[in-house]
Amino acid sequence: GDSVTQMEGPVTLSEEAFLTINCTYTATGYPSLFWYVQYPGEGLQLLLKATKADDKGSNKGFEATYRKETTSFHLEKGSVQVSDSAVYFCALTPYNFNKFYFGSGTKLNVKP
Amino acid sequence: DVKVTQSSRYLVKRTGEKVFLECVQDMDHENMFWYRQDPGLGLRLIYFSYDVKMKEKGDIPEGYSVSREKKERFSLILESASTNQTSMYLCASSFESNTGELFFGEGSRLTVL
Prior knowledge:
The complex is a heterodimer.
Chain A lengths: L2 E4 L4 E4 L4 E3 L1 E4 L5 E7 L6 E6 L5 E4 L2 E4 L9 E3 L8 E8 L7 E2 L3 E6 L1
Chain B lengths: L3 E3 L3 E4 L5 E7 L5 E8 L3 E8 L6 E2 L7 E6 L2 E6 L8 E8 L8 E2 L3 E5 L1
Parallel strand pairs in B: 2-11
Antiparallel strand pairs in B: 1-3, 3-8, 4-5, 4-9, 5-6, 7-8, 9-10, 9-11
């Protein structure tokens, strides 16, 4: 069945460090891929998305590229800030958008 | 802005009690979802609904039921709460088909004693 695997956390970085959070997926067909972020005390919100192979999603300095050949959608940011401290979830949905599959989440702590 | 509102942020219930978690969205979304969020397990789908009075089981429906009598409201019901249902419950909604983006409420943290 469809599933998402993302790297275990927590990830602790200093401000301005480079961030990578790995995400790989298993799916039949051509899913859409997402990164959601959950800031402390808040609900999840969409960070970025990609709907087909080789698409690059980007938002707030974060980027992720839909790699079909490696079934991956790794999240990257060149220079993290303390305000980026949150839990990040990789997710996919099959073609009909009615079911979403989430990874286990990766907690990011950014220290000043 | 889309708003998904969950009725209670924190609840404490006793084993065997009936528990209602309410969710209301204000953007006329067709789809609504209930997830539970547990450390190390991420989000797991309990039930979803794609129309009024329609529902489909998710991955972990056991011990839960749902009700969708109006388009904007989706209720999660624990008929007889158990300690293993202590969790964070997240409601979400989306349009039937467009970008596939989910809009989440802030969550309801349920503790069953």
